[in-house]
Each structure stands twice: as structure tokens, then as C-alpha cells.
């Protein structure tokens, strides 16, 4: 079997992981976590992209969304607001899994609503950075 190609896509403020509200998001930087994830799955071809800009996230989804095997997407606060990201996910054929580090349902009410869940294959939230690995497992189990 050819290597699965999975994009890890992070939205706004997730470049600050490690420094940003560590009591909620933990003390590890995303790049440190990503290096471990890549090591855990030698048979997967990963790429990682982060942007604070909604249109750049949309462009990335369009770029990989017809040829890659999966996208693990933490849309950050755009989760709760972005019809454009929902449309981008709907518009491609690659399955997208929505992930969140925190359990958004235990937090403020505005975080309980996701604009993108309805376009995604599934949602994983609340397991810290391990949410990303669980999403990778879910994608690989479908192959
Ligand atoms: C988040 C949850 C969002 O509500 C928040 O805006 C984020 C991070 C999470 O991973 O827990 O930026 O997506």
C-alpha cells in the first residue's frame, strides 16, 4: 500500500501553543508534538501548515483536498464563525477531521457551536494534543 498522505492543519493562535493559556492548552509547543507524531507513524507522509488567516487555510484545503488521504484540522476560533471554511471542506473530496485540544463543550457557550462539524467526517475534542493522534488513527482505520 502507498503511504497515506495526511495534512495537519492549524488555524489562528495555534502557533502560540506552549505559551498560550498553558492551563488550557498545555506547555508543549506544536512543533515538538508534531515531531513526535511524525516519528510515531513512519508509514504516513505528513505535512503541517498553520495560518492565522482564514483565506490561507481555505487555499491550503483546496490545494490538498483532491489528492491527499486526510486532513486533521484544528480551525481554532474560526471553528465557531466560519461559513467559508465549512464551504471549503464541503468543496473538496479529502475527508477532514475536526479536532480541538480542549473540550469545547466544557467551556464558554460560544465554543459549543461549530460551523464546520457538519462538513467533517468526525470530531475529536478534549484530549489535549493527543486529539491529533486520535484523528490520525481514525483516518488510517478507514484505509
Ligand atoms: C480550540 C478551541 C477553540 O474554541 C479556540 O478558539 C482555539 C483552540 C482547541 O483546540 O481547543 O483556538 O480549537
In words, what does this structure look like?
The termini are close together. The protein has a five-stranded parallel beta sheet, sandwiched between helices. It contains five helices and five strands. Helix 4 links the parallel strand 3 and strand 4 (96-100). Helix 3 runs parallel beside helix 4. It is globular. The model has no long low-confidence stretch (mean pLDDT 97). The protein has 143 residues and is of the alpha/beta class. The structure holds 1,3,4-trihydroxy-5-OXO-cyclohexanecarboxylic acid. 1,3,4-trihydroxy-5-OXO-cyclohexanecarboxylic acid is lined by residues 13, 74, 76-77, 79, 100-102, 104, 111. Residues 13, 74, 76-77, 79, 100-102, 104, 111 line the site of 1,3,4-trihydroxy-5-OXO-cyclohexanecarboxylic acid.
Describe the largest sheet.
Answer: 5 strands, parallel
Please give the number of β-strands. Answer: 5
- Structural class by secondary-structure content: alpha/beta
Ligands: 1,3,4-trihydroxy-5-OXO-cyclohexanecarboxylic acid
Q: Percent range for helical residues?
A: 25-40%
Overall, the morphology is globular
Q: Give Rg in angstroms.
A: 14 Å
Physical arrangement of strands within the biggest beta sheet: 2-1-3-4-5
The string of secondary-structure elements, in order, is: EHHEHEHEEH
Low-confidence stretches: none
Strand portion: 15-25%
Average predicted local confidence, pLDDT: 97
Distance between the termini: 10 Å
Number of H/I helices: 5
Amino acid at each position: 500500500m502507498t503511504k497515506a498522505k495526511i495534512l495537519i492543519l492549524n488555524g489562528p493562535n495555534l502557533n502560540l501553543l506552549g505559551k498560550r493559556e498553558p492551563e488550557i492548552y498545555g506547555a508543549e509547543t506544536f512543533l515538538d508534538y508534531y515531531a513526535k507524531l511524525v516519528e510515531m507513524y513512519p508509514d504516513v507522509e505528513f505535512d503541517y501548515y498553520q495560518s492565522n488567516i482564514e483565506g490561507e487555510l481555505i487555499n491550503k484545503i483546496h490545494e490538498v483536498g483532491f489528492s491527499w488521504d486526510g486532513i486533521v484540522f484544528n480551525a481554532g476560533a474560526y471553528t465557531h464563525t466560519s461559513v467559508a471554511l465549512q464551504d471549503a471542506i464541503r468543496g473538496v473530496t479529502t475527508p477532514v477531521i475536526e479536532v480541538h485540544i480542549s473540550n469545547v463543550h466544557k467551556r464558554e457557550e460560544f465554543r459549543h457551536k461549530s460551523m464546520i462539524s457538519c462538513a467533517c467526517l468526525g470530531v475529536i475534542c478534549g484530549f489535549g494534543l493527543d486529539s491529533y493522534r486520535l484523528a490520525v488513527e481514525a483516518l488510517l482505520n478507514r484505509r
